[in-house]
Amino acid sequence: MNLNYIFHIILVLLTPLLSLSWCLILLLKKEKIQAHVIMGIMLLVFTIAYFLFISYFTPAASMISGICYMSFALILPPLHVIFFKSVTDPDGIGGNSFLLFVPNIILVLITVILSMIIGRDASDALFHSLILNEPTYVPQEYINSTWNLLNIVCNWCFRYMFLAEIIGVQIFAFFRLRKYNNTIDDYFSDTERRGRKNNFLVFVTMMITMAATLCLLAKPFHEITENTPLFITMSICVSTGIFLMGYYTNTIKFTAQQLAEAIEKNDEQATNDGTFISKPDSIQINEKLYSQCIIRLKEIMEENQAYLNPGISLIEIASQIGTNRTYLAQIIHSYYDCSFSDYINLQRIEHSEILLQKDHDLPMADIATQSGYLTLSSFYRNFQKFTGTTPIKWRNQFK
Predict the structure, then answer these.
(1) Are 348 and 308 contacting, i.e. CB atoms less than 8 angstroms apart?
(2) Which residue of 12, 181, 200, 254 is most buried, as measured by CB atoms within 10 A?
(3) Is residue 263 one of the residues assigned to a domain?
């Protein structure tokens, strides 16, 4: 056994071992942890291991490397589900989340058992013929019903299970992230610092990664080699996409757990103040309370200009009005037909329009700051969103 072969086996086992270690940490950790950071680090390590594997070490295909490759691939979809759950679920990750690994583990175990039945030499020949596009002489005595069953499991069951799980992950991530981002919009005016942009970038890079993976699985293994342009291009896309997922994940500063803590704190305060807390699906607002909340909300916005506070949140406004965040969120949706974030940012843009019209020499950075924005990019983005033009073009029409 040469050094390259040994290094290949270690490399292909690296990510599954890291993944299982990460799962073990989550299960044993009693207090809440930022699982998305651990996941991001794991993904960064994975992309290096994966690219080296597909680029340089695939020719060492054998039973051991083939089973490692299968395990390596089948770990990814459940891990991505757990990852997006850790990012978007205020309750964190429970032990039942790891049941997602059970079907994949069963498939790998079946492969191991069948490989042991037909023997090492026959298994090496089968995996070599599946993974590489090289003619492999297979002695006739190797080919039997068990051989054919293993061929079906490795070539078709694995591919179709992997494809189904990839599509499932995309659907799951899309709806989870959309729901979570809508929640952020309903609670905070400064969604950029709350990870909304990063969540979107993580999802986009995941889509690119999964699309590249689907391209790699579009043909049987024996038609794909490490030398084809498609294989190299798609592998680079997979590697780069996962690297970016890890990078964007590690830069998320606001987690679902922090959102849950902020909501819990508000609910405790509302309970102590004697205001009624109810679940969103059971809310019924009477007309008197509805009118009182609207009047008080307008007072806070128009007289106190609360929207100029960059960190203003729905929870703070609800406390000032004397109601709870659940009522107020529904009231804003009902009366203004928008999220809390859009409501606040619209007030800020209207304020910036006054400044732009009043002082033609005032720098854009000052206008952004005086309008409640922490960054110029956030100001430009929201101005374009609500006016359809840039602040500079809008001001030029009054010169």
Answers:
(1) yes
(2) 12
(3) no
The type of residue at 220 is P
Q: Are 155 and 146 in contact (CB under 8 A)?
A: no
- Give the per-residue pLDDT at 279: 42
Per residue in 252-273, is it b (16+ CB within 10 Å) or e — as a string?
Answer: bebbbbebeebbeebbeebeee
> pLDDT (tens digit, 9 = 90+) per residue, 190-214?
777 677 777 788 888 878 877 777 7
Same domain? 243 vs 275: no
User: What is the rounded distance in angstroms from the CA atom of residue 337 to the CA atom of residue 65?
Assistant: 56
Instruction: Check whether residue 20 and residue 108 sit in a common domain.
Output: yes
CA distance 304 to 155: 66
Give the whole-angstrom CA distance, residue 391 versus residue 334.
30
List the CATH number of the domain containing 376: 1.10.10.60
Mark whether 65 and 188 lie in a shared domain: yes
User: Could you tell me if 381 and 349 lie in one domain?
Assistant: yes
Domain that holds residue 185: 3-258
Question: CA end-to-end span of the chain, whole Å?
Answer: 79
Q: Mark 321-330 as b/e (b = at least 16 C-beta within 10 Å).
A: bebbbbbbbb
Does residue 246 share a domain with residue 374? no
Structurally, how many domains does the chain consist of? Answer: 2
Token pair 């999802």 is at which residue?
203
Cβ–Cβ under 8 Å, residues 130 and 113 = no
Please check whether residues 94 and 170 belong to one and the same domain.
yes
Q: What is the pTM of this model?
A: 0.72
Phi, psi at residue 188, to the nearest 5°? -130, 145
Interatomic CA distance for residues 48 and 66, integer angstroms: 19
Whether 62 is covered by a domain: the verdict is yes
Closest residue by Cα to residue 76 from 46, 51, 45, 97: 46
- What pLDDT does residue 190 have? 76
Mean pLDDT of 248-260: 75
| Residue found under tokens 């599946």 | 130
Strand partners, 313: 188
In a domain, 265, yes or no: no
